[in-house]
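Sanity check

After download, print the first record. It should look like this:
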Amino acid sequence: MSYALVLAVGAVAGLVSGIVGTGATVILLPVLVMVFGPREAVPIMAVVALMSNFAKITSWWKAIDWRACAAYAATGIPAAALGARTLLVLPQRTVEIALGLFFLAMVPGRRWLARRHRTIGPWGLAAAGAPIGFLTGIVVSTGPLSVPAFAAYGLVKGAFIATEAAGSLALYVSKAATFHTFGALPGDIVVKGLITGSSVMAGTYAARLVVERLSVTTFQGLLDVVMVVSGLALLWQALA
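Expected structure tokens:
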């Protein structure tokens, strides 16, 4: 029954993540904690993240902007490895408040750039890759951070989903390799991650049918909703 619950929620998480580019961790992690416990949930989610991003990449392979991906990964990969080895020195509440405000600020910020037909460019993605990569090494997921970064680059729909996934995959490989080095990815954890990740991949592949039917305006509206919900959830958790 436990695995049935994980697989069912994983499919829903993959569908949501495949449509808007993020959200799988927010949906799936509480269930993983409930079924496997908090110590196993984080490394399991790292394996799931690898599989989820791989599914997004293969769904939209031809739409990937490899220049954007390379710029982001160039700084993000070493930063993710550093973050995975570093203890979080700032108080958790401070981090949650800062990230929550950042997500909320990115909604008008992205719309301001779009109205003026401006993007952050490859150098902007390279600048974003380092701090996001570092945080990726420390926390479970930074999808809500990478989503506005790639959206500000000017990508939409399939190109956005696949390019963000390719950049994130590079960071998660760096993080997973560090976990493995320190013995945090034993065989049973990998197996649980593969089983869970299979359902997330199925949902992600199904999401392409939805994305192909969305208008650009609707897609960008969904991105705004994700960022607002993520920001408010973090602020609520920090201030509660």
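If your output differs, re-run the checksum step. Summary of this record's structure: The chain has ten helices and no strands.
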